[in-house]
Amino acid sequence: MAKVHPNAAAVAAELGTPTRRAAAGQDQEPEPPTTAVLTVWRKSLLFNCDGFTVYDADGDLAFRVDCYARRHAEVVLMDAAGAPLLTVRRKRLSLAERWHVYHGDAAASSSRPPVLSVRRHVGGGLRGASGGGKTLAHVVAASSSSADAGGGEAFVVEGSYGRRACAVRDARGDVVAEVRRKEAVGDDVFRLVVSPRLGAPLAMGLVVVLDEMFAGRGSARSWLRLRGSC
């Protein structure tokens, strides 16, 4: 049985407290009441795992990712109880680096169309459709048709994931999710602000995709290099 990090309770209290202060407006402007503010820790609570631990505005565990393999062709986002919510899977044999996000666990997702399809931005200009900043990725939210076929709503991810300052914008340029730095605690802890238009699980799924695309997990050299370029 995998062992839980012995400081899990202390970490929850430490990471939850700044988020509660933010919700109260003590360290920044308060978010709209319908906006979800999550604190994301880029670490699994289990030993010998990569992953994420995510807390809500009350400091309670909201989501978790626990990856045993060093190379991640597939990542599962779970709720606090460990039930799979989303499966993030890299698309094989694709000309562009592309990831698909499915509802549920890996076994069931194989026969379903992805709910999101995310393609890393390559070539062309660096400005996004809104002109807001450097383009990192393009996202298609599938409707009844496959995301690969271009169905559904389009989003663009702009900014810098390495610097923990990026936003997901819709076709009108409105921000539906945003990654923000938490200066006092370093790059491995950051804030995820989510509009109900996208929803917290899908926003966290996009964070997992961005981390796989840009963070160079498991390679300190790649991480330092990407901090200056992404």
Automatic annotation (TrEMBL):
Annotated InterPro entries: LOR, LOR_sf, Tubby-like_C
TM annotation in the entry: none
SUPFAM superfamilies: Tubby C-terminal domain-like (SSF54518)
Family: Belongs to the LOR family.
UniProt-recorded name of the protein: Uncharacterized protein 15C
Organism: Sorghum bicolor (Sorghum)
Lineage per the UniProt record: Eukaryota, Viridiplantae, Streptophyta, Embryophyta, Tracheophyta
Gene that produces this protein: 15C
